[in-house]
Amino acid sequence: MRTPDTLTAEAILPLVGGPANVTSVAHCMTRLRLGLRDGSLVQRDDLRALPAVLGLVADDDDTDQLQIVLGPGTVARVTPEFEALLTPTPTVTELAARGAELKEAQKQRNSTPLKLALRRIANIFVPLIPALIGCGIIAGLNGLLLNLGWLPALTPALTAIASGFMALIAVFVGYNTAKEFGGTPILGGAVAAVIVYAGVAKVTVAGMTLAPGQGGVLGALAAALLGTYVEKWCRGRVPATLDVLVTPTVTVLVTGLVTLYALMYAAGELSSAIGTAANWLLDHTGAFAGLILGGLFLPLVMLGLHQALIPIHTTLIEQQGYTVLLPILAMAGAGQVGAAAAVYVRLRHDTSLRTTIRSALPAGLLGVGEPLIYGVSLPLGRPFLTACAGGAAGGAFVGFFATLGDKVGATAIGPSGWALFPLLAGNRGLGTTAAIYGGGLLTGYAVGFLATYFVGLHSVALPSDASHG
């Protein structure tokens, strides 16, 4: 039976140039990411008109890339349906080979080392987000039950379920790192597993005893990178008849020793420094730090630089149980919602724009901001800046309470907006934490709305607006 997700995939395919124009398919939390041979074949207006499509993300640096915003949950269901429509024929296979060459040449022209590094970081950590969210929500529920004293027989089981993934997250990071950099994934996981093995407590390095988990995800990342390099070095030198025995053994042995006697300590120091810096920043410059982080996050998302924060969030969650940065950064979405609401009120005669805002606002309230960014504020220009002002105000609000000792954190990354409430954690109890976060959202909404209403639309000259000037 053809499901709504199948129908959505079937509707998208011809509008992106058909199967012959698609070179790769992937998805993140909200977006269907397509590699294309010819971006000019995409019928963007018709794509935006599809009911399931919340928006398109333009990438000026990569004309062969298209990101279709479908929203969380929907994108995970539509992607396999879309892939099922791409069964290649011999003719398409020939075209794919030529398209791959053209794509590689285009990447060489457009890709920068920083952009490639950030993409690889995202490819390592983004697949972990669903597990982080699921375990984070269970951890939040378990914490609520513990605080209320309810179901004491169940809470140990919930603790085990919520904590199991985080106890072994280094293994998954190692696996994904080796996979991303061309090594054998299971060897990447094997060398990263050294970090979380309880027996490392018996290893002494320079007179100091190691602790299981020391170095965390950063140590796992470094270990898997080194393991991939050692594996490739071995495969280029070991005879094929001995490769199956020698290469895995040398890879695990050499990388394991370096991990134990160098990487775990160095990565542990770096992880501790990240936690210390984040806490110091909010303890001593909370409102100012929140102002800067909340105000600059939307531009970071536009440039793709926000991906560099993923390992930092993950390190903080692993180290402290929650990341204090994400709730502040989530205020950028609140400013965006406030700005869009002001545009809706001021440009009341622009039916098309108001329809876009009505359809995108619910997603924006739940932290999916791309439809509002690319469909409303960014095309209008100044409202994008006033949305940043709203995010800055919300971030300053949350940061101010951090200087008072009220920390607001998130036990997982991915969701924001109102969807972040089930993942909130802090040092003052769930009620206080939720109140501060909610106050930050309301501040972001209000400042984003007022700044856009009174300042952000003076330079906008839409035909419908001009006729009613």
Structure, described:
This protein has helices at residues 4-15, 44-49, 74-84, 90-110, 113-125, 129-148, 155-167, 169-180, 185-196, 216-235, 240-303, 310-320, 326-329, 331-346, 351-365, 370-380, 382-403, 430-456, 463-466, and strands at 22-27, 31-36, 55-57, 65-69, 204-205, 208-209, 408-410, 424-426. With 469 residues, it is of the alpha+beta class. The chain has 3 domains: 4-111, Gyrase A, domain 2 (2-Layer Sandwich), CATH 3.30.1360; 127-281, no CATH class; 321-466, no CATH class. The chain has a 4-stranded antiparallel sheet. Strand 1 and strand 2 form a beta hairpin. The protein starts with a helix and ends with a helix. The relative contact order is 0.09.
Separation, N- and C-terminal Cα atoms: 53 Å
How much helix, percentage-wise, in residues? 55-70%
Total domain units: 3
Q: Secondary-structure element order, as H and E?
A: HEEHEEHHHHHHHEEHHHHHHHHEEHH
Strand order of the largest sheet: 1-2-4-3
Q: Give the mean pLDDT.
A: 87
* Number of distinct beta strands: 8
Per DSSP, what share of the residues sits in E-state strands of 2 or more residues?
A: 5-15%
Radius of gyration: 24 Å
The number of helical runs is: 19
Largest sheet: 4 strands, antiparallel
**Structural class by secondary-structure content:** alpha+beta
